[in-house]
Fold:
Amino acid sequence: MLARAQELPGYMPASEPLVEQFIQREGQLRTYKRHSLIYSAGDPATQVFLISSGEVKLSRYTPEGRELTLDHLSADAIFGETEVLLGKKRESQAVARTELIVNSVDRETLLASLETDPKLCLWLSQQMAVRQARMESRLESLLFKSANGKVSQVLLKLAEQHGRKNGNGIMIDYPITHQEIGNLIATTRETVSYAFMEFRQLGLISTRQRKTIVHDVEGLRQIALA
Structure:
């Protein structure tokens, strides 16, 4: 179940045998179709989830109805644990970004196991710390970078995580729309599209069959650092 490596930076693998045994013993396998809602803001937090395969999008909505993407998670990532540990209702929503298989564990089972299993407790703490560090890094970039800088940073991260070298550069083999990028960096789809147009005019990127090819990594990096 835990064979495929996580693709997000700083991931702490669920490599402890006791953790894997716990999930296999206590978890209930669930499948979700693409775009299925796993839970919504305001729902009771009764379970935690570990992704076996597929991707999950965590997001919130502003009072004006604007979606803000908190994270994209893939195999071996845990989610839904914060509200479970705090005994609060869900503060965000989780949606299957792709066809999804997860293992879910009831709140009572998790809390009882944390009291008796220090390795499980340590692993969960590491998972939460990694996510917090990633969110703090994103928040810093949202506060201090220009719109083009934020878009270029997303492209660089996607190229690093999902890029395939070809004769023209690095093809980002990851389906993501301008709207989804905008939701990640708290800006509009139009702003992202304008940044893509500028990058194409500068020869930094090109697009082909809805995929982005990065031709000048260093050029994007300079924009991201500006």
Helices lie at 17-26, 81-86, 107-116, 118-144, 147-162, 178-185, 189-201, 217-225. The first helix runs from residue 17 to 26.
